[in-house]
Design a protein that fits this description.
The protein has helices at residues 4-26, 36-49, 60-73, 77-80, 82-97, 99-102, 104-116, 118-124, 130-146, 149-160, 164-183, 188-201, 206-221, 234-244, 253-263, 265-277, 283-301, 311-328, 333-358, 365-388, 394-417. α7 (104-116) crosses α18 (311-328), α11 (164-183) crosses α17 and α12 crosses α17 (283-301). With 421 residues, it is mainly α. Helices cover 76% and strands 0% of the residues.
């Protein structure tokens, strides 16, 4: 049980993440023009607000909510992106409600990633349904853990109205579970999931779930009984997902691979480092690893892939990275001073390197590389001195990993702050 001071710090961290998420999502939200996909969804919402059929809509809940906003305040690019930005920011608050289930380190890691990572920020600034899927999945998880069956029915209805992104995420998770229970039936992950499901399934009030689901579906699907012609949009999600397997609708494989390397590679490396440096009996490790591999494979072969689908790959990375951060929270007191001292030195070296690169022209790239090599040599010598002085290898490794995560986080924050500007 965390102390009162620790809980206060955790709450302040969540508030900081929430405010950062709000700032990154709403700053200059309407500056960039809508792209073709966004314009199609916004036009469907505008048509519905005028009482016409929502032709071209693929995300019923987005179309319905945005049509209400257009009816009240008029149409604009800012309003077209308002609901995804609001829902994307509120995911941090949902993770706060799940903190006891996830654990402190996992909850903080996931909240930070959702708040500032470029893939999540870009998805929240996009006029589509991806953030609604993430919200519905989080609500399903919360309702099962707290046995709130009316909330479960609402979350299932919201998921059904969230568009083709639901089917992408559901396909990845379904393949993950099939692989886990087919080839790793006796693993800790399989046994843990079976135990949890057995406990939950016996207590589910199916009648309450069904009633809440139908009522929520009718109210949300008709914009609270004001848009009855919107209810037919439910079937458009499945049709769009099926059509996307025909090819020609997603981004080319080479562009997706570039986005994967640019946005996900550092976090893949951190996830793998966490996987190989933590306890092997942790039931979540194998599940997240299988999820990660399935997500990469599925998105590479799926013709309808989009850049926004990277969030399904980053979620298991954050889950694995949380285990690494959890170790940092439990550092032995005798190692904390040298680790933090080494960490501070590495930050100064990183700052020095950044100042060099900021002034680097094409003719000075070699010199910048020599500076980077010098820093690497200094870090190696520092590690040797610490080890020779009696400190364990864990000291420089922890400090180096902490500095790397901080550097990557600042890079992600800088990249997210440029989205849509």
């Amino acid at each position: 049980m965390p102390s009162a001071s620790t809980e206060t710090k955790v709450r302040l961290a969540f508030v900081a993440f929430f405010l950062a998420g709000i700032l990154l999502r709403f700053t200059q939200l309407g500056n960039a023009p809508l792209d073709e996909g966004e314009a199609q969804q916004a036009l469907a919402a505008y048509n519905l607000s005028e009482g016409n059929p929502a032709t071209g809509s693929e995300v019923p809940i987005y179309t319905i909510l945005t049509s209400l906003s257009f009816s009240l305040f008029g149409s604009s690019d800012w309003l077209a992106r308002f609901w995804p930005a609001l829902i994307g920011s509120s995911l941090v608050l949902l993770i706060y409600l799940l903190r006891e289930l996830l654990g402190r380190a996992s909850a903080l890691t996931l909240a930070a990633g959702v708040a500032v990572l470029p893939a999540f920020v870009a998805t929240s600034r996009f006029a589509g349904g991806d953030v609604f899927v993430l919200l519905s999945l989080g609500l399903i998880w919360l309702s099962l853990d707290r046995q709130r069956w009316q909330l479960l029915g609402f979350a299932l209805a919201l998921a059904l109205l969230s568009g083709p992104a639901l089917l992408v995420g559901a396909s990845i998770l379904l393949f993950c579970l099939v692989l886990l229970f087919t080839f790793f039936r006796k693993s800790n992950s399989s046994q843990w999931l079976l135990t949890r499901w057995t406990e939950i399934s016996h207590s589910i009030d199916r009648r309450a779930v069904a009633i809440a689901f139908l009522v929520s579906l009718i109210l949300l699907g008709t914009a609270f009984l004001t848009r009855f012609n919107a209810f037919g949009l439910v079937g458009s999600s499945l049709a769009s997902f099926v059509q996307s397997w025909g090819g020609g609708q997603g981004i080319p494989l080479n562009l997706f691979a570039f986005s994967l390397l640019k946005d996900a590679t550092p976090w893949l490396l951190i996830a793998l480092l966490a996987l190989f440096t933590n306890r092997k009996d942790n039931p979540s490790h194998q599940f997240f690893l299988i999820w990660l591999l399935i997500a990469i494979g599925f998105l590479l072969i799926f013709p309808g892939r989009r850049a926004e689908d990277l969030v399904w790959l980053l979620l298991p990375c954050l889950g694995l990275a949380a285990a690494l951060f959890e170790r940092w929270l439990k550092l032995p007191k005798e190692n904390q001073v040298p680790i933090w001292a080494t960490f501070a030195l590495l930050i100064l070296l990183m700052l020095f390197q950044w100042l060099n690169f900021a002034r680097t022209s094409n003719a000075e790239i070699l010199m910048a590389g020599l500076v980077a090599g010098g820093i690497l040599l200094l870090v190696t010598l520092l590690a040797m001195v610490l080890i020779g002085g009696g400190w364990s290898m864990e000291v420089p490794l922890h400090a180096l990993a902490m500095a790397a995560v901080l550097g990557l986080s600042l890079m992600a924050l800088a990249q997210s702050s440029r989205i849509g500007r």
